[in-house]
Design brief:
Number of strands: 7
CATH topology: Rossmann fold
Strand content: 5-15%
Helix content: 40-55%
Structural class: alpha/beta
Distance between the termini: 11 Å
Order of helices and strands: EHEHHHHEHEHEEHEH
CATH architecture: 3-Layer(aba) Sandwich
Largest sheet: 5 strands, parallel
Length: 216
């Protein structure tokens, strides 16, 4: 396939990780890059960029765009990415990041995952996991086969929301996403790289359907 540089973009709960896995079934050599992984790697290895990011985090401040961009630049310049292409997940989040990325490595497609807000609510507010094995469930969309029993390890489980998974926090997160997303989406639309993807059930997409999304 001629395209091998993709951005996955969408609100919290839109299924970027799930769709990344679907893409990897079609193009297994693509390198999946998430900003969260890059951060953890730099902090763990105490790189210069990691130390710089840590200095802001220690003060309770947001890590500036410049530091995030430098981390992404460093990762995109590695040989495995240059040879195989990438799926960028969680970057760019802002217009300055989008413009910086165009100078580092222009993507082939900006895939905007679209999901109705009510479905996002169910995905996020209904999620919980088995404390013994970590298997993930959803009260609304993916309950265990037998209520109260983990499918994977047989442990007793019950629905418990994470402290940050509540209506008010979710509304704030979605509102913040929409505010920041508009200029980024407009930027890629202007560059004719925007492709909208119905992400209500990407697991149901066939390999041919995924290829069609990635090629056009």
């Amino acid at each position: 396939m001629k395209n091998n540089k993709f951005i996955l973009f969408g609100p919290p709960g839109s299924g970027k990780g799930t769709f990344s896995s679907q893409i990897k079934k079609v193009m297994p050599n693509l390198i999946h890059i998430s900003t969260g992984d890059i951060f953890r790697e730099n902090l763990k290895n105490e790189t210069q960029l990691g130390k710089k990011a840590q200095s802001y985090m220690d003060k309770g401040e947001l890590v500036p765009d410049g530091v995030v961009i430098d981390m992404v630049r460093d990762r995109l310049n590695k040989d495995d990415v240059k040879e195989n292409g990438y799926i960028l997940d969680g970057f760019p989040r802002t217009l300055p990041q989008a413009k910086a990325l165009s100078e580092i490595s222009e993507p082939d497609l900006f895939l905007l995952l679209e999901v109705d807000r009510d479905i996002l609510k169910k995905r996020i507010l209904g999620r919980y996991s088995c404390k013994r094995c970590g298997a993930i469930y959803n009260k609304y969309t993916k309950p265990p086969k037998e209520e109260g029993i983990c499918d994977k390890c047989g442990a007793k489980i019950k629905f418990e929301q994470r402290s940050d998974d509540n209506e008010e926090t979710l509304k704030n997160r979605l509102d913040a996403y929409e505010k920041n997303a508009k200029p980024v989406i407009k930027y890629y639309k202007k560059r004719k790289l925007l492709k909208r993807v119905n992400a209500e059930n990407t697991l149901a997409l066939s390999e041919e359907e995924i290829k069609d999304i990635l090629e056009n």
